[in-house]
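Researcher: We plan to redesign the surface later, but first we want a full-length starting point. Tokens attached.
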């Protein structure tokens, strides 16, 4: 290993409270439109943390920002750790102030806000058709109407424990992890529990879906494959340390980092390790995979580019501070933020700096690239749009 892995407490803390599940038969009435609540009809849409269910961190924008000029900013009353999602020109994210927001992605104008959340919001949202999903720090999971911001249903975890895991919506189910040590599958329309899997430790990571299987890392150091239909665990691989990083799955491999500072490539069929790459400190950053290269940040102050097949280093960029945010890639540019409040844009092939911009606080969120804009949140409580 290159250097000693310095153990640091996870970014998130457990908060325990007692809540009550609110899903009921009224949910069904709402969804079929006979409660009297009007909701705009929308075509099938989906958006999720890291840009897709494989969590590769790749976005389809063909004209990613190459200047890094501030377009607009939107202020909340709390830290922003929730990474935004953009659908149909509307942006969705949560704040530490306990409010979930929808903004116009072009102008930053607030469309609506929901301030009845029972705890702080660190979970990054998923959008599927009419609904937007996220969890909060008091163990309550929400589904809101994405057009109106009205609550459709809620679900409470087994021990009313905190949720940072970003949900994945797949085949009419919504999947997420919780600090109570369970991986949950709910009916996406009603919030009724389909199954739960006790993994033995808390789950800040987010589930990835690839070829009809679910993959997620656990804080006991295991990386597991699960049948999303039944909740049955199919295999596990012991990585040797805590996993907060969300895996990216591409071309038959799952790429995930752990608190020992190791980036691993795991065969998704066999659960066997293909290779490992050592950084100098813990990895909380979730990898991106783009055109045969894996990009990941480390608390050793570097962003790394690693060959996806061999695990050999391609290049590294020294940011001078811990890189806890997850890199996002579009149009051959890698975007990420640092603990110093600087947002960076690098050439994907070489790691050369294209531009950087300082904001008012640490950046841990993963950026979203939408058209010619890159959008991200900061510890200063602001959501930024750069062009």
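Model: Full-length starting sequence:
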């Amino acid at each position: 290993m290159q250097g000693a892995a310095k153990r640091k407490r996870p970014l998130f803390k457990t908060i325990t409270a007692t809540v009550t599940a609110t899903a009921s038969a009224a949910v069904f009435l709402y969804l079929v439109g006979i409660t009297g609540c009007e909701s705009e009809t929308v075509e099938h849409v989906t958006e999720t943390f890291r840009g897709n269910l494989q969590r590769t961190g790749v976005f389809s924008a063909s004209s990613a920002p190459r200047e890094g000029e501030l377009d607009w900013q939107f202020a909340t009353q709390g830290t922003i750790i929730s990474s935004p999602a953009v659908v149909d020109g509307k942006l969705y994210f949560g704040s530490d102030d306990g409010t979930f927001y929808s903004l116009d992605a072009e102008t930053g104008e607030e469309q609506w806000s929901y301030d009845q959340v029972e705890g702080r919001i660190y979970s990054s949202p998923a959008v599927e058709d009419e609904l937007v999903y996220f969890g909060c720090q008091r163990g309550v999971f929400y589904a809101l109407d994405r057009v109106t911001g009205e609550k459709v249903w809620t679900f409470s975890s087994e021990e009313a424990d905190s949720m940072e895991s970003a949900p994945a919506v797949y085949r009419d189910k919504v999947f997420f992890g919780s600090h109570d040590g369970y991986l949950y599958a709910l009916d996406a329309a009603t919030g009724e529990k389909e199954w739960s899997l006790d993994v033995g430790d808390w789950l800040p990571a987010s589930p990835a879906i690839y070829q009809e299987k679910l993959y997620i890392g656990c804080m006991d150091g295991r990386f597991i494959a699960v049948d999303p239909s039944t909740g049955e665990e199919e295999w596990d691989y012991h990585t040797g340390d805590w996993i907060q990083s969300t895996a990216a799955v591409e071309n038959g491999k799952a790429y995930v980092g752990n608190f020992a500072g190791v980036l691993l490539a795991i065969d998704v069929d066999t659960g066997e390790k293909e290779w490992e790459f050592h950084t100098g400190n813990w990895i909380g950053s979730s990898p991106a995979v783009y055109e045969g290269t894996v990009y990941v940040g480390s608390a050793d102050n570097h962003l790394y580019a690693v060959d996806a097949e061999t695990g050999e280093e391609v290049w590294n960029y020294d940011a001078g501070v811990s890189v806890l945010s997850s890199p996002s890639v579009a149009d051959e540019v890698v975007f990420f933020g640092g603990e110093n409040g600087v947002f960076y844009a690098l050439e994907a092939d070489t790691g050369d700096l294209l531009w950087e911009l300082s904001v008012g606080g640490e950046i841990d969120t993963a950026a979203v690239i939408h058209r010619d804009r890159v959008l991200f949140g900061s510890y200063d409580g602001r959501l930024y749009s750069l062009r």
